[in-house]
């Protein structure tokens, strides 16, 4: 695609990157065929090709309007289009660049600003979030339905974690909301890893991965989270930790991008690159281990929801399904498994109507062969899907841990 950036755009820190991405797009439109919002709305400007054109106009110096912002806001950042694109357009990075320029030029309405600032203030703060969640459970009946569906139907308490006893050590991101919404997820992961001779070293100073701030109009704050996490992990990395494990694929996708996002920071570029190289979704660790040692025995009938951040961002589609099948679980077929469930970080709160439609469509697909339970690999998807009050939704590692043979449990 031919493009000529304006003088203002050429002064942006990522100007050369934006121009390279724009020129890689041949405007073929294949991306629209797999874009969830284009499928729902049928508007060219609510598909990847149209959004790329909008960003091109902005970076060429054309007027930036509230409508431009609305079309960019409606993007889920699911990256389905990147999987589909024959030209390898790096869409999500272009979107990040474009959104930052648009948001700087177009003030949001007061209600939107308060919502986004509230989310940034609460969600990355585990203590505050836990307190508000507990209060919400007590007063659940008094809350509007939009908030009730965000509260978990069941909170499974964390089982005891094994002591750090093995030579092989990994780090684990605990996350922001997952310890409150699904406290047993990371505990189950630690117990399964321990069974395989791998210990999890806790690093309590590590906080939010940074994705939430970064995607809510606060990119600098998101990168500050990344720097703090790198500092917290670094001594253990130097001591030989072999991986940084994530059980939430959304966090994992962002941590794997640290190296790119901090590549121009002289103090952190090399460290960020190293952290991104060590970042692994839990399935990447387990698939290389002798899983027969787990002694899992289960023929439970499951539907697996593969989060966008796992299949499109991390390119790990099919990996969890292969493990679950090898362990004896009976996986049902899921039509249109490439499509987003509508969770997309905070999208279900900032774009509730579109998010609800996508959720209902996804649940219809997941339930089409009547599974006993739905499993997934990302806390946002888990909470969003389970909030519909239909088939229960859990993290897949919890079912694996529950099916371990009784020996040494």
CATH class of the domain at 293-402: Alpha Beta
Beta strand count? 8
Multimeric status of the protein = single chain
Which strand order spans the largest sheet, edge to edge or round the barrel?
2-1-3-4
- What overall form do the CA principal axes indicate? globular
CATH architecture of the domain at 293-402: 3-Layer(aba) Sandwich
Characterize the structure shown.
By secondary structure, the protein is of the alpha/beta class. Helix content is 50%, strand content 7%. Strands 2-1-3-4 form a four-stranded parallel beta sheet. Strands 6-5-7-8 form a four-stranded parallel beta sheet, with helices on both faces. The model has no long low-confidence stretch (mean pLDDT 95).
List keywords for this structure.
409 residues, alpha/beta, Fumarate Reductase Iron-sulfur Protein, Chain B, domain 2, Rossmann fold, four-stranded parallel sheet, 24 helices
């Amino acid at each position: 695609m031919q493009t000529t950036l304006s003088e203002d755009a050429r002064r942006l820190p990522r100007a050369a990157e934006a121009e390279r991405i724009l020129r890689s797009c041949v405007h073929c439109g294949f991306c629209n065929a797999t874009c969830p919002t284009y499928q729902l709305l049928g508007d060219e400007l609510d598909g990847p090709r149209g959004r790329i054109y909008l960003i091109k106009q902005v970076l060429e110096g054309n007027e930036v309007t509230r409508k431009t912002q609305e079309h960019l806001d409606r993007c889920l950042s699911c990256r389905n289009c990147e999987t589909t694109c024959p030209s390898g357009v790096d869409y999500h990075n272009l979107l990040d660049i474009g959104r930052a320029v648009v948001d700087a030029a177009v003030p949001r309405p007061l209600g939107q600003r308060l919502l986004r600032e509230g989310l940034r203030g609460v969600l990355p703060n585990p203590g505050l979030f836990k307190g508000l969640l507990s209060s919400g459970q007590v007063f659940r009946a008094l809350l509007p339905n939009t908030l009730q569906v965000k509260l978990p139907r069941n909170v499974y308490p964390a089982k005891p974690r094994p002591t750090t006893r093995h030579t092989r050590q990994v780090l684990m991101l605990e996350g922001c909301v997952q310890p409150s919404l699904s406290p047993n997820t990371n505990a189950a992961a630690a117990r399964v890893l321990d069974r395989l001779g791998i210990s999890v070293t806790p690093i309590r100073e590590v906080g939010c991965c940074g994705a939430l701030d970064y995607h809510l109009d606060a990119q600098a704050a998101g990168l500050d989270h990344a720097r703090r996490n790198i500092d917290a992990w670094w001594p253990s990395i130097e001591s030989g930790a072999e991986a940084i494990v994530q059980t939430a694929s959304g966090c994992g996708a962002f941590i794997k991008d640290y190296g790119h996002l901090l590549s121009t920071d002289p103090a952190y570029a090399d460290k960020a690159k190293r952290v991104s190289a060590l970042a692994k979704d839990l399935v990447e660790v387990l698939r290389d281990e002798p899983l027969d040692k787990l002694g899992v025995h289960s023929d439970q009938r499951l539907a697996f929801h593969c989060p966008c951040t796992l299949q499109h961002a991390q390119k790990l589609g099919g990996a969890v399904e292969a493990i679950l099948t090898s362990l004896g679980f009976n996986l049902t077929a899921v039509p249109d498994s490439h499509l987003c469930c509508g969770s997309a970080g905070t999208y279900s709160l900032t774009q509730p109507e579109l998010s609800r439609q996508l959720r209902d469509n996804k649940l219809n697909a997941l339930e089409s062969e009547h599974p006993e339970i739905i499993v997934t690999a990302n806390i946002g998807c888990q909470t969003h899907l389970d909030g519909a009050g239909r088939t229960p939704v859990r993290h897949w590692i919890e079912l694996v841990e529950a099916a371990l043979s009784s020996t040494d449990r």
